[in-house]
Amino acid sequence: MNSDFQQLWIRNLFSRRRKTLANILLIVLVMIPLVLCLVFVDSMIDGITEKYILLSGGQIQFTAEKDFVPDDLRMQRTLNAFCVMYSADSHASVMMKGVGDGFFDSNRLEQISLEDGWETGGNKVLISSSVASVLGVKTGDKVAVMLLSNPDDAVKGDFNPVFRPAMLSVGGIFSSGYRQLDDNIIFADIDWLLTVCKGETVQIEVLTGTNDTAQNRDMAEDLMRTNPKLLNYTIWNERNTEVFENFVNSKQMILIIMIVIGAIACVYCGTIASEVFSDNRVTICTMRLLGASESQVRRTVFLYAFLVIVAGVLAGTAVGLLIAFNLAPLLRVLAGSGFSGFAMYLLDFDIRFSVWSLLGMDVLISLAAGLALLLSMRGNRKTAPLELLQS
């Protein structure tokens, strides 16, 4: 059988559109969760990481002497203090973060949404919508706070807590889109907070533009050498360790899920060749009578099945990307319906993906499926031309 005859039979197999489309559709359905795992979930984790870095500590956080004033715009003086807020109806335990005028630059403002504007300075406080909901307050309302005024003593080990009461005004309400962050942080004026907290140090947050741990550590060491008032530092992944360990575990679980789904896809792809052999037994025997060799038959079946797999993989990737780019708005609508399960996820983030990562996954799945095809075809018994006369 010459190559023209092989091409003719392949076109004949593809002409059975219902069977071909059914095979492609099943591969598409398997590829969609793979793409969602790689693109949507990874983008959500990256979005949460970015919010924690920008709002909760920067890529590098130094402990510095209280009178240290940085001259680098990337460095911001902050002060953290534990407090309990009280309203007429309820209370909430949060971390009060004292910040200066330049803290909320364009990058940080992109991470939050504000209700009805906001004011800073003096005894005004910026609280999250989730804390405002718990306390039952709105912009302009008064809240009482009980502040831990000697946080440095807790670090030294000789800790005798001293709490100081204060009355604050809600200067604005924000939302970062991530409930676990909103539940635990509020913002106040650092100059006011310094008058309440009697510590000897402040925090200096630095945005370096990279999340690479080694690069950030080198930058931190350089800054420590040139600024003697910087006492020590931590890198972004060393703070909120429980949160970032959850991210690592989540990515590992995603990898395991992807491997399982990929294995299922490969097993299914291996059955396509078996179906072709069983559905075209008469045609194959006819080809053998016309002089086709067993290797030519198997090569033709493999080529058809592999083209179906590649078509399904590419179509599944395209559909998965389409869903990934449109899933976040749908989740935001569902979250607005009041279902509490969505409150623990970040629903406002940019979809980011690497084209090369997606192509690498597609190539890997296609090659693994092709190997499964070859193994499956080895299990099919050889076709003999006499079977046509017996059928």
Observed structural traits:
55% helix; 13 helices; 6-stranded mixed barrel; 10 strands; elongated; 391 residues; alpha+beta
Task: Determine the mean pLDDT.
Answer: 80
Instruction: Compute the CA-based radius of gyration.
Output: 31 Å
N→C terminal distance: 22 Å
Poorly predicted sequence stretches spanning 5 or more consecutive residues: none
Number of strands: 10
User: Can you give the helix content as a percent range?
Assistant: 40-55%
Strand content: 15-25%
Shape designation = elongated
What is the oligomer described by this structure?
single chain
- Helix count equals 13
Largest sheet: 6 strands, mixed, barrel
Query: Which structural class should the secondary elements be placed in?
Result: alpha+beta
Compact description:
This protein has 391 residues and is an alpha+beta fold. It is built from 13 helices and 10 strands.
Q: What does this protein look like?
A:
This protein is α+β, with helices and mostly antiparallel strands and 391 residues long. It contains 13 helices and ten strands. The protein has helices spanning 3-14, 17-56, 106-109, 129-135, 151-156, 179-182, 190-196, 213-226, 241-279, 281-289, 294-336, 355-378, 386-390; strands at 60-65, 75-86, 91-99, 113-118, 124-128, 142-148, 163-175, 185-189, 201-206, 230-235. A six-stranded mixed beta barrel has the order 2-3-8-5-7-6. The radius of gyration is 31 Å and the shape is elongated. 34% of the residues are buried.
